[in-house]
């Protein structure tokens, strides 16, 4: 009864609270939670003012933020392009890494073949691979997605391989005593055991996918935040170049936080 009265009072308060008050309250909570970022921007502003840097060399954060706000349509177009290619590359990389790890788990011959090849392939500098991939796939979004796949598949492969072998104590013997088939063993024991490790790989690879997409766009793209950064730096439009970097940092952080939430849920479900 008491809880019902409290809920009714809470609903009445929410209805009577102006929208601007709710927004300002959320903004204050965000600033309090992320005060080191606000401090970093303040130090950046003071540093530029004290050193009297030219806007071409080092623009103040206020100028960068103002450029983002007043040209939001330009930033939005390039952000959507980078975000979409990075997400497609991330999904492709996670699937590829997961499939290779499953093949490696299923056979010692496959493990001996795939492990050194994946290590060698992931060690090649991506900057050297981009021109080759672009000649094969074309100078468009498909190359950006392919680069993101190459960057993100290796964490998925490594963590899922480890997860498939990290079985709960006693479970392996139980499945063998019950006479489970190899497929049933994989589907009902190894794969669920690997899910928490795969979630860790997703958290690590999420921000790397954005970085990979931006590097590919910087070198050969025709749109996206990397392309925006490249053309604005060439035109000495430093505010916009810094703005592209700032937006890239923001979406990388956002993806990392989302992946962290997913990891917590996966661990609650499978760990």
Total helical elements: 12
Query: How many E strands?
Result: 0
H/E topology pattern: HHHHHHHHHHHH
Q: Averaging pLDDT over every residue, what do you get?
A: 85
Share of helical residues: over 70%
Note the topology.
Blueprint: H1 2-16, H2 19-33, H3 35-51, H4 61-70, H5 72-106, H6 108-123, H7 126-137, H8 141-165, H9 171-177, H10 182-220, H11 225-234, H12 238-270
Can you characterise this structure?
This protein is mainly α and 271 residues long. The protein is built from 12 helices and no strands. The two termini are 38 Å apart.
Index terms:
271 residues, 12 helices
Summarize it.
The protein has helices at 2-16, 19-33, 35-51, 61-70, 72-106, 108-123, 126-137, 141-165, 171-177, 182-220, 225-234, 238-270.
